[in-house]
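Narrative of activities, Objective 1.

The group set out to show that a structural description can be obtained from nothing but a protein's sequence at a throughput compatible with the screening campaign. Below is one input-output pair from the validation batch, recorded exactly as produced.
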Amino acid sequence: MSNIHFKLDIDADGIALVTWDSPGRSMNVIDPKVMEELAGIVETVAADAAIKGAVITSGKDTFCAGADLTMLETLSREFTEVVRRQGEEKGTQLLYDESSRLSKLYRRLETSGKPWVAAINGMTLGGGFELCLACHHRVAADNPKSRIGLPEIKIGLFPGAGGTQRIARMMMPGDALQFLLKGDQIRLSQAKGMKIIDALVPADGLIEAAKKWIRDGGKPSNPWDVEGFRLPGGPVYSKGGMMTFPPANAIYRRETYDNYPAARAIMQVVYEGLQLPMDLALRVESRWFTKILRTPEAAAMIRSLFVSMQELNKGARRPQGVPPASFKKVGIIGAGFMGASIGYVTALAGIDVVLIDRDQEAADKGKAHSRKLITEQVNRGRATSAEREALMARIAASSDYTALGDCDLVIEAVFEDRKVKSETIKKAQAVLGKNAIFASNTSTLPITSLAGEFNDPARFVGIHFFSPVERMMLVEIIRGKQTGDKALATALDFVRAIRKTPIVVNDSRGFFANRCVLNYIQEGHLMFMEGVPAAMIENVARMAGMPVGPLSLNDEVALDLGWRILKATEADLGPKAVNAQQKWLLQEMVEKRGRNGRKNGKGFYDYPQSGPKRLWPGLAELQKKRLDPDKIDIAELKHRLLSVQSLEAARCVAEGVITDVREADVGSILGFGFAPFSGGTLSYIDMMGSKRFVKLCKQLEKAHGPRFRAPKLLTEMAEKGDTFYGRFAPGPARAA
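Output recorded for this entry:
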């Protein structure tokens, strides 16, 4: 059989070098053909007496990015079809047989009777790292930028090719659970300290070091297959085990509120697997993996956080026929916290930046923010002093707008005030080149109206960043009514250049993300005004799956910003466009009590200089009535907090603000942390079913008012039993 993905070379010492180099891919990934070829190579190595052992490495800069999860989507469709034709038992057997193939392949390699060494030459994740764990020795090329890990939990799965069982036999069970449940990508030095990598060597000596281990008598068995093996933490039913698993279960519930079936499965398979010999333990793992594949949470998370995100990152929404943009210099107007942070991530991507503010002192202060951020990375060992100086050299701070003259792209990030933005646009367009694109980082002001101040609205686009810019992965690109394809493509190219995920939305007040998240914050405000205890609002939000409660989130984005947005909305649309109770609360907090949020150390929470934040005791004074916590319906609070966001997302689809369902889901998770287990705001509705969701909305509307009224689109979908992904299947036809 001729191989496409692997090359097999045998040296004079009888050591096989297996080089993985999938054609046409920037990184190696595992798919059915890769598994087929690797299985054949394992059998060749096992059967040939002249081969003393094998080294597996990569012909690319990275080792393996994991499995191609699109094959799981294919498998899910096959499962559904078999269930339809032959019944549930046959379908489940198919799912088990196919999903356990990789685990069985790695076990065959591990027990083939020949020593295998993983020569890791770059990033190694997921199923790729599980392959390394099945090998009998792991050597890595020493590179501070390389990472290894098992991140499956982040997309609703867990390592299903032996990862849970091997990791749990290589380190203390508490450490193993933390490694599996966090899904972090760790540095090689950390991995060596954890003893999941055996040696770090210079890159040019990687293959020789791997072969030497075999020549020096490396054993063809892992410790757990050797008689007398003892678990690092002792038996599960021991003093050590009882000090690990009950507390781990409590921590798991505290952190996940049992919203993530895959996290629960990790707890289960480690607990059960450590009581069994390896082959039975792997079978337990495969059975649980099959079960998790059938959960709606896994399907939704894989679709949104892997498939859709990958498609958007590759430019699925980019206008066709527009040449790719290159960026020699980008201008940022406004060197405050947001503008300075945009400048930082731009310079970090290797692009020259001009940072403009009202005077030199303010511009210099903005540049200093970048030094602060990169110094934090240097102190953590994630960047070098030389990289810091190179980054700072790419940022020029100035008060002179003429410095924008040769910029390819200019982004304004000034105060969220229409008058201030108008003045900024007029100053900038006087010096811009005729081909330069101008972008506004406005949070809520419609792009079309701002573009009216620009002499060529086709070159005007919205690029909305989320705070803190250096950590938030989403950027919302807003297309005004006259925004041209070149401006849109340039914005998309820029966002990809700074390694963020873009979504494209059509113009409206608040666009997409802020429309949803402001509803979430408002719902928290209204619950508070109803008399729900502040602590209960915050805790129930986390129980529902949100990363932080609405009051805490309001503190982070700043109460005074919310107050300005509310006043601007009222000024533009009239008093009926704002909620009177929310207006009273924000005015009381901001204007009368000076509580602006985290930025001035006091909001719904107090932020002491030492110690954690805590809810401000004075909140009780602002509640005109207080409900008995024991009589409050927790389930209804959870539904309110999630449904009010999903309803707004549905309205955005109905109004044409969102034209691609992938962007609503990816945007809601990356932009404001909407319950990731659901797959996003629209997937949340699909998971519940449109009919059931509309019924819930009617109940909430009756109890709490018209903000829970389902749009006509949703009621039509409920009548027909439609889903968003069925009715609005994403694809090329649904362009921006």
